[in-house]
Amino acid sequence: IIDQTKDLAKAFNAKVWLIHIAQPDPEFVSYDVGPQYIRDEIADELRGEHRQIQRIAEEVKEAGIDCDGLLIQGPTEELILQEIKKLNIDLLIIGNKKKSFFH
Questions:
Q1: Is-contact 73 46, C-beta < 8 A?
Q2: What are the backbone angles phi and psi of residue 73, rounded to the nearest 5°?
């Protein structure tokens, strides 16, 4: 998906926003996350996902395309709609973990 995104961005001289929406904070959805080590695991996972988004954004930038990467935590559908409006996005390209743009 990233290669096709770069092709479209070049063709239309467009900015690319790589947005990864992580699961909501368990406390936000009234779910007890348990001991501190579980909180630490969740935080480590989010940091890793953020680094991955930033690495891909750098790869896109190296191709001469304006690109920023965001990791946002919360309800997927709501956040997609919010970010489309906030960032004035004209075209949305979606990947998922089963066929992720990370791989």
A1: yes
A2: -110, 125
pTM for the whole structure: 0.75
Q: Which residue has the tokens 């996005």?
A: 89
Minimal CA–CA distance to 83: which of 96, 97, 98, 68?
A: 68
Distance of CA 91 to the CA centre of its chain: 15
CA angle, 49 then 70 then 88, to 5°? 155
pLDDT in tens, 51-75: 999 999 999 999 999 999 999 998 9
Q: Mind giving me the DSSP string for 24-76? A: PPTTTTT----SHHHHHHHHHHHHHHHHHHHHHHHHHHHTT--EEEEEEES-H
